[in-house]
Amino acid sequence: MSVRAWSYPVVLTLAAVFGSFAAQDAQAAGDAARGKTLGYTCLGCHGVDGYKNAYPTYSVPKLSGQHPGYIVLALKAYKSGERGHGTMHAHASSMSDQDMEDIAAYFAGTPVKSAPGSAGTGEVPAVVNTVCSACHGKDGVGIMDTYPTLSGQHSDYIERALTDYRSGARRNGIMASFAGQLKPEEIKVVAKYFAKQKPALETLARPQFKATAPAK
Hints:
The chain has helices spanning 8-25, 32-38, 43-46, 68-80, 86-93, 97-108, 126-136, 155-167, 173-179, 184-195; strands spanning 52-53, 58-59. The chain starts with 7 loop residues before the first helix and ends in a 21-residue tail after the last helix. It has 216 residues and is mainly α. The protein is built from ten helices and two strands; from the N terminus they run αααββααααααα.
């Protein structure tokens, strides 16, 4: 049976089941103050609005407002090699689980929440209704802490992530089954739709440090 043939309640039930297991593994209850110190080098990419990854070129994801539990899962995936990215693997490999939770708490800040009665901005594409909304909502806000919020995320980043799940460059059985149902043109539609949703993720602003006068 294809993913498109699943009814919404069935998909939602599976989402809740898999999400509950993931939540046990990665509930981010970190120390944001410690995370700010640990994550300072991360701001070199994630603290610059519009910064691009090179080869292939796509926008570095916005993290402010993201679910912290999802950031933890992403870091673990980079550390294990489930996600292939040399720079992220190098950074994540040196992190303990607590480091990840602290960094996630700092970058997430106050997670984005769905507005009451939100049904998405603009016409909802059919593919969003049939494949994406059970876990990410029609407005792009992940339904639980371990599901990513997509609202306001860079369109080219969403497109890249879905393409990687589809090709196996990102190894995740659940997402591979969903992304594998999407044609390249549908991936573009999904990415553009979620990118324009609100309330939106943002790029965490880099702290501004004031120069101090030398001691006399």
